Amino acid sequence: MKKGKIGVQMMMLKGKVEELGVYETMRKIQELGYHAVEVSQIPMTAENVSELKRASADFNIEIAALSAAVDPMLPDAPGETLSKDFEKIVNDCKELNCNFLRIGMMPLNIMGDKEQIMTFIDKAEGLAERLAEHGIDLYYHTHHLEFQKFDGEYLLDMIKNNTSKLGFELDVHWIQRAGENPVEFVKQYAGRVSLLHLKDYRIGQMDLSEVDFKDIAKFMQIFTNTIEFAEVGEGNLNMPAIIEAGLESGAQYFLVEQDDVYGRDPFDCLKTSADNLRKLGYSDWF
């Protein structure tokens, strides 16, 4: 029976990496039963790359994907980009035996400008073609902002319809937040998706302890911001149907992610997600 591989999006653990280092963080990931990671928001210093490599071998953890921006998220923002650090990023992929590279987002300052978006799409497709020569596939990760419409078309569909080499890393929480059904939407990207973010969607409780009800604007802000990032299985999404749709659509890696853990230890959140995924019948996907 066909199956995928469940892993961890390490953006959740950037604080742990600062505290424990890459190697010990990876040891803990393995103790929780995960054997694949996507590396994001962790500085790709020579030391971190070498520790990722050592931990990958010692703990039998695949480096499923690395992250790289096309251009800085905002003008002059720090960090590596494919535009100026192409060779270094390719070398990191080779060093870590990793064939997937993902773009976390397009630069925020161009997201409202159709012309600049089209320029970005062309650039990303060109980079995908260049990376393919090195055996590396390039993917674009989605949030809710890619569901803005330009002349009636989602920004995300504009990227899909104007590229053939670039793939997609769909994030099911953000698809839900954008008002689409994640199960049906993932199917529309069949053949273009190898990486899927498993992140649940929960309506949290309102904290009204500080609210003066004469300040309706403040109340409305709390009222409309109750959506939370939930551990897999702790929210409202139909995870088995999503995972099935992902598998049918070509997803190979199913990466657990939670943008905010609301004061919990991220390792505890990852354990909750793993326990729930096992209960749902995905033990052999770890």
Structure report:
The structure is a single chain. With 286 residues, this protein is of the alpha/beta class. The chain has a single domain (5-285), classed as Divalent-metal-dependent TIM barrel enzymes (TIM Barrel), CATH 3.20.20.150. It has helices at 14-20, 22-31, 46-59, 82-95, 114-132, 155-161, 172-177, 182-188, 216-223, 239-248, 266-279; strands spanning 5-9, 36-38, 62-67, 100-103, 137-141, 149-150, 153-154, 167-171, 193-198, 200-203, 227-230, 253-256. Helix 1 packs across helix 2. The model has no long low-confidence stretch (mean pLDDT 96).
CATH architecture: Alpha-Beta Barrel
Number of helices: 11
Instruction: Spell out the helices and strands N to C.
Output: EHHEHEHEHEEEHEHHEEHEHEH
Strand fraction band?
15-25%
**CATH structural fold name:** TIM Barrel
Segments where pLDDT lies below 50 for 5+ residues? Answer: none
- Order of strands across the biggest sheet? 1-2-3-4-5-8-9-12
* Multimeric state: single chain
Give the overall shape, derived from the CA principal axes.
Answer: globular
CATH hierarchy, class: Alpha Beta
Radius of gyration: 19 Å
Total count of domains: 1
Number of strands: 12
Structural topology:
Blueprint lengths: L4 E5 L4 H7 L1 H10 L4 E3 L7 H14 L2 E6 L14 H14 L4 E4 L10 H19 L4 E5 L7 E2 L2 E2 H7 L5 E5 H6 L4 H7 L4 E6 L1 E4 L12 H8 L3 E4 L8 H10 L4 E4 L9 H14 L7
Parallel strand pairs: 1-2, 1-12, 2-3, 3-4, 4-5, 5-8, 8-9, 9-12
Antiparallel strand pairs: 6-7, 10-11
Helix pairs in contact: 1-2, 2-3, 8-10
